[in-house]
């Protein structure tokens, strides 16, 4: 799976370099915050728009959460996500609203109970902090607020292949996207 992520990263860079040669539309940055399973998540994104309907995205995601099962176990997830999104719907005429779907790879680190395998109660945690990897699928709804700014509602579903927190991990957030040029 590690080789797949490396290949995906090279593909991501090749698409970006190809778009630079063929004339690009814009780059944008975004910041969103919202619900991550068992807690709060925040995501920063950089988008390289390949044309009016496709963009390559590089995201950084952090989740601060606490599993409320038999014991309260805090955990954090930090990931980097290269991916690609495609516009599947845009409001006719005014082009004020748009819906984009996409996906890509995920690589990061999860920290369980601040790296300590023993809880305050003396219970031993079976899971451990580790590097994680996988894939994700995402949906973005965008409302244009001006020439350079848009409101963004984002939803991602992650599949972490080797996570002790859980293989499937959702994130839903709201934020802003700013177009650089």
Automatic annotation (TrEMBL):
<feature type="signal peptide">
    <location>
        <begin position="1"/>
        <end position="19"/>
    </location>
</feature>
<protein>
    <recommendedName>
        <fullName>Conjugal transfer protein TraO</fullName>
    </recommendedName>
</protein>
<dbReference type="InterPro" id="IPR018899">
    <property type="entry name" value="Conjug_transposon_Tra0"/>
</dbReference>
<dbReference type="Pfam" id="PF10626">
    <property type="entry name" value="TraO"/>
</dbReference>
<keyword id="KW-0732">Signal</keyword>
